[in-house]
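Researcher: Here's the sequence for the chain we discussed earlier.
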Amino acid sequence: MRGATSNTPSAKRNLNAAAPGRMHWPEYAMEGALLATFMLSACVFASLLEYPDSPVHQALPEAPLARRAIIGLAMGLTALGLITSRWGQRSGAHMNPAVTLTFLTLGKVGRRDAFFYVLFQFFGGASGVLLARAVIGPPLHHSSVRYVATMPGPAGAWVAFAAEFAISMLMMSTVLWSSNSRRFSRYTPVFAAVLVASFITFEAPLSGMSMNPARTFGSALSANVWSAIWVYFTAPVAAMLLASAIYRAIRGARQVFCAKLYHPSHQPCIFQCRYGELNVE
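Model: Thanks. This is the structure I predict for it:
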């Protein structure tokens, strides 16, 4: 069954939802709640796998790669679930200021919506860790977990910057090329989830694997760990903006159809949406 075209009721609903001056409080709140849930999940699985007294950790005490792989799988599935959830379908599931700012520069997100998306993302990141602290308690504070704070590895801040830049650019490039493809748009959440799992497994020793200023801020606030915070506020944004510039240079700005990572036709859309033009099978 083909997706809605620009003349369908779905497309008209999208256009009306993006009307200038309208506030989209439900979507803002959903963005905050989605990232809060992601952070709660990260804290739970990191505590289970990394806290020394955890039975799961004790079963794999000399296998850091295996533990990271399990955490990566859990967080990849968490990301997949959140992106495809009803809230994720409606808000677009950015959960990341760098993603929102990229779509702002692509003309898909209004300035007011971008401002409140970023604001609620930071609030959600911090709230998720605070909720985890209340639920998990001392294990989350332990030095082996440390509120899942993202910090440079032994190679230092510049290696962490390069690693964050690389994974952020790969993530945004994948999102743009897949979500704007008639063939692959429906698989964008899967691609994003696989990348999250892979980055946690293999890249985390270099930078802690953030890609997300709000995610890093949420952990840093509770842990009071601000080591090389500039890395996590600059590398993801710069990398995703570069990925969008390359995409536009190759395909053109008109080939960006919407700012959602997953776009079922039955959900309203607050963005400058032309997704119906993809005619997804």
